[in-house]
Every structure is written in structure tokens, then in C-alpha cells.
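re: that chain from earlier
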Amino acid sequence: MEEKESTRQLKVAREIEKVLSEAIRAKGMAFFGGALVSVSGVKISPDLSVARVYLSIYPSDKTEAVMATIAENARALRGELGHKMGKQLRIIPELNFFIDNSLDYVEHLDELLKK
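^ sequence. v structure.
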């Protein structure tokens, strides 16, 4: 059974989500090859050292290219996070990026319902 996240974890995760959303939005769609990228959620480990960042990418056929771009720029994104949150956190968490497939799932359900 998974442990419930602490209030501190939830607050830090929400702040990380906000900072990364701004950083990704500032890069613009052209940076990601015309794909729309948004941070759909962040889960952080109990010791606040690792953050799982979930990204929603539209259109989904650009997912691989966007994830490669994100991987190349992960250090810069973590650096920006450190710059914005350095006074609030002792350790800036390591960022692990994952794809949030909930949009694809919704599209798939819509297609099934139309049949």
C-alpha cells in the first residue's frame, strides 16, 4: 500500500509544477517542434530528493521528440528550479520525466464511444 503524501510533499510538488510549467511555457512551442507541452502533475519522494514530473504532450505523435528535448534540457530545467526554489529547499530534487497518457486515453474512449 502506498503511503499518503505529507502536506510538505504536496506543497513542494505544487511549487515545482508551477515553476516547471512557467519554464516550459517560456521556451515556447517552437522549441518543442510545434508540440504543446504542459506539466500535468508532480509527485515527490518523502525525502524530497526525487521528483516525478508528468508531461502532457499534444499532438501525441511528437512525444518521442519532445521527451528527447526534455532529456537534453533536464539539467537546465533543474537549474532554473534551483534558482527559483533554492531558498525554500535544502536539496533541489532530481527530475525524472514521464509521459501522462490521460489525453490519449480520453481520445481513445471518445473514438470507442463514437462507434
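The longest helix spans residues 7-27.
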